[in-house]
Amino acid sequence: MEPLFVRRKSLSPGVLNPTFIAWRRHDRIILSWIYSSLTPAIMARIIGHNSSHYAWNALEKTFSSSSRARIMQLRLELQSTKKGSLAMIDYIMKIKGAADSLAAIGEPVSEQDQVMNLLGGVGSDYNAVVTAINIRDDKIYIEVVHSMLLTFKYRLEQQSSIEQISTMSVNYVSSSNNRGGGRTYNGSRGQNYTSNISNYTYKGRGRGGRYRQNGRHNSTNSEKP
Known about the structure:
The chain is mainly alpha-helical. It has helices at residues 4-7, 18-36, 40-43, 52-80, 88-104, 111-119, 127-134, 142-180, 188-198, and strands at residues 10-12, 15-16, 200-202, 211-213.
């Protein structure tokens, strides 16, 4: 706020205060800088303030109220975010983003609280790694927790992939057995072949004997000289 002697526009009737004139010139430059740095929506909140001091105070009140609301929003996001269907890396980055935003506006979250918020939203599939982290006696850093969760996620994906391949193999074998179950193999072909052979009777006439077929099939060359 400008000093009292500066606020005196005139020293006496008809005599302007040169100090006030110089201050007023500089104050208008500062006020112009403030206006030029604002968006139209924010600028509308300080319209009517004719000095940089009053304009700045109005901005401070506006943003301090917004900051408190923002802090509450980020803290709620930090505590209520769940992994759900998110990829593990996306879930980690969402929690980290909320913590970083709080730190940027002067409300840092302790590393221990970040770890607890992170583990609290991963779901029952990660009970093993959550238990392993909780029973540790030494201090654990948030980067280590990130690494453990990502490694455990990769292991779960590997196991799921192996189980799917195993299930597909079992289904394939079962399907193959079902398709082959209707076939019956017997010696009918061999028996028929033997029977056909037996239908031929041979009668020899010396070296140039003839043969006759007594079965259903007739030989194309029934006699040879």
